[in-house]
Each structure stands twice: as structure tokens, then as C-alpha cells.
Amino acid sequence: MSDLSTFSPFPRLPIEIRRLIWANALPRGRVQLFAKSVPWEDWRLYPPLIARVCHESREVAQDLAIVRGFPTARDKHNETWFIGSRDVLELASGYPYPLSNPEPFFAAAEALAINAGDFRGEIQSVVRDLIRGTWFRSVKVVYLVAEQISTAYWPRFRPDLTEQDKGKGTILDLCDSSDLKSIEEYKTWARSQEMSPVFPRREEVEIPLRAALDELIVGELSAYRHLTDPESHNTTRMQDTFQSHHILSRDDPWVQQQWKRLPDFRPALLVLGWT
Length: 275
Hints:
By secondary structure, the chain is α/β, with parallel strands linked by helices. It is built from 9 helices and 8 strands. Helix 5 packs across helix 7 (202-228).
């Protein structure tokens, strides 16, 4: 096999395997911003390059993507291709967005990103919706963005960068060894260019984030327990008031059981670049 860029037997593979290969070749980790007011031209996700290879690859990409005009469907030339199993949905500026139609995006997303400094706003709303099953039934991980970093050398964090991806962000998971390695490699390269970039360390952000998150989740689970407990509706108003403010213990068996239904929350950085 002197030419590793081609694989002649590919068309002879069963279609199920070919589709799996196409799906695996889709880009991972693109960030789709979902906000009340957003310059859509700068943030919409373009069709992945693999969708232009052939009819079969485009069909696979379309099957996995939410392809629609956004935030409204009026402009057919202003579509986004959001792939819920590969891309990250960043929630910002006005969640839960009462004036838009977020359902397709919320149903498809497997990864969310939220500003870690907003525990009494968007994070609380998202946690409440996750606990009550209102949205995000497919979400497996929620990135709590501790810091947003802008750098002209941002493509070094995205080896799969293409021209059409320029201007988008990328999430660096502070609990992921490969992302931590990327940060260290970038810092080493930056020092060789006589730059001194500063990145927050995992231990500096994770402990306070975990403490605040645990308190918030226990409080929301306590409120949910009171809301769904049939016996609470037969008590007096005074008892209701007491129960609605009664916070369950983190070690409570019911709390632990409900906690297992929630996605993994991870501290992260959002790296933005400019062209």
C-alpha cells in the first residue's frame, strides 16, 4: 500500500460499514452558539466537508444533522448543520429563549456548554430542566466554561481546522488528558515564540465549581421531590412552606439515585480565534 490516501476496496464494503466510516469521519467538537441575540452569520455551522464527497456521505451527514435556518427558518441560505452527536451546543444570553424554537437542537445535543459564572441564572435553569426532563434528553456532558480565551493561534488547538470553521470556538475539557496535553503543547510552543500564555489550572477551577454545583443540584432535587411527592399536596400551607425549603442531604438514597440520571458536568475553557 504505497498510497495511503486511497482505499480502493471501500465501495465493496457493506453499506452499513461504509455509513459508520462516514459518520466517524465527521468533525467533532464544533461549537454551535445558541443565544437570544446572535450574529448568526458568524456562528452558524456550515455543512461538514465530508458532506461534499459523494451522495452517500452527504446523506449520512444530513441524517445526523439538524439542518435548518436559525434562529428562524425564513432564510434557506442561512442554514446551520448542527450534529448533536459530534458538536457542542453553547447556551448563552437569555436561556430558555422563549421567542425561538430550540426543540430540535435541545433534543439532538449530546454536549452542552454554559458560562460557569452563572449559577443563579442559566446553569440553574439547565439543571432544573435536566432534573425534570423538560429538555436535553440526549445530553451526556455539560461543560462549565470557566474562562474564555482568545488567541490568533487558536488553530493549534484544532488540528482538523478547515477554512469554513474559522471564527468558531473549541472546548477544552479540563478533565480530559488529551485536551490538557494540547494546552501544555501550546504553552511550550508559545514560550518558543517568546509568549507567556496563562491558562487556569484544573484544580483551581474544579473544586469551587464542584462545590457550587453540588449545592445547586441538591437544592433543585429537593424542590423536585417536593413537587412530585403526592403526600406534600395533603399537608397544610405551613407544612408546605417548610417542605419547600427543606434541603435533602447529598447522601440521601433518593438524591443519589436521581443524581445518576444527570449528565457529567466538567470544567472547561472556551478558546476563540480570529482570522
